[in-house]
Amino acid sequence: MTFHSTDTYVATADLSLAVNAAITLQRPLLIKGEPGTGKTLLAEELARSLQTRLITWHIKSTTKAQQGLYEYDAVSRLRDSQLGVEGVHDVRNYLRKGKLWEAFESGERVVLLIDEIDKADIEFPNDLLQELDRMEFYVYETDETISARHRPIIIITSNNEKELPDAFLRRCFFHYIAFPDAETLQQIVAVHFPDIEKALVDKALAMFFQLRDVPNIKKKPSTSELIDWLKLLLADRIPASALRERDPGKAIPPLYGALIKNEQDVQLLERLAFMHRRQSR
Fold first, then answer.
1. Is the CB of residue 173 less than 8 Å from the CB of residue 29?
2. I want to staple 152 with a disulfide (CB 3.0 to 4.6 A). Which of 19, 25, 112, 113 is the partner?
3. pTM score, two decimals?
């Protein structure tokens, strides 16, 4: 059971090594990196390559660890008891299984994605320590222990919005997805657009990296935004000649809305373009 690049996902040698090491150690794989570098997509491609099911738990700022195990709907049970609904005496009818319970009771080994764990409260990772370590949890309402039938492959993603507790980190295998270099980006583009003109890719990548290197830019464009931009360039049939190589301060790229995502960066590029025009007179 090993993972490498697929026909739709380019995995570097270091990333493949990290995935396979986590599987061997039976540890959760904690993936960090810039937004848009394919952290979530990694779990999807891993499940597809292993021909198994992906269970995704999207974390929000209000998410509690207990929700990943189960939730007891006492309000519905009380209402049903007042209405005389059949089955109200069986507490199991009012337990909502969470994503960990779903993964633990699966008849096959699944991939469990805990996506953007850093969005939750700082205590959230610590509240899952025992469950992720022992692969079991206790249900108080039914006085039973739920144990994993097959230990899931766990992928945990983080955008580094907050630090994670040391006790949690100690139980994970860690990998940081560095931003791809030009060669890797060319491979990624080839996966998405196998018939794209090489000249267009070369000039688009040159402009893309120039944008990322603009001093004081607030939101650097990501890999996923590059793919969106190229898709628009192809849809509008914009030729490579329209992307002539130039300094990032000289002009804003065509269809820049796919790459630049806030007004501060647009104004910064406009000021750089204006300053360049003044200096060229």
1. yes
2. 112
3. 0.86
User: What residue type is assigned to position 24 of the chain?
Assistant: T
> Rg (Cα) of the chain, in Å, rounded?
24
Please give the pLDDT value at position 256. 86
Task: Kindly give, in sequence order, each residue whose CB lies less than 8 Å from that of residue 260, ignoring residues fewer than 6 positions away.
Answer: 211, 219, 221, 252, 266, 269
**Of the candidates 124, 122, 119, the residue with the CA atom closest to the CA atom of residue 59:** 119
Calculate the alpha carbon distances from 233 to 160, 240, 242, 266 in Å: 32, 9, 10, 19
Burial class of 216 by CB neighbour count within 10 A (0 to 12, 13 to 18, 19+):
exposed
Q: How many CB atoms lie within 10 A of CB 29?
A: 24
Half-sphere exposure of 46 (CA within 13 A, CB side): 32
Measured between alpha carbons, how far is residue 246 from residues 98, 164, 176, 208, 276 in Å?
A: 52, 41, 32, 11, 11
Asked if 113 and 158 count as a contact pair (C-beta separation under 8 A), the reply is no
Note the Cα 270 to chain centre separation in Å. Answer: 32
SS3 of residue 33 by DSSP: strand
- Residue 143 CB neighbours (<10 A): 8
Q: What gap in Å lies between CA 238 and CA 244, rounded to an integer?
A: 12
Rounded to 5°, the CA angle 192-35-200 comes to 35
Q: With both helix axes pointing from N to C terminus, report the angle between 223-235 and 198-212 in degrees, rounded to the nearest 10.
A: 140
Q: 217-262 pLDDT, tens per residue?
A: 889 999 999 999 999 999 988 888 877 645 444 557 888 889 998 8
Residue with tokens 């960090």: 32
**Hey, what amino acid is at 176?**
Y
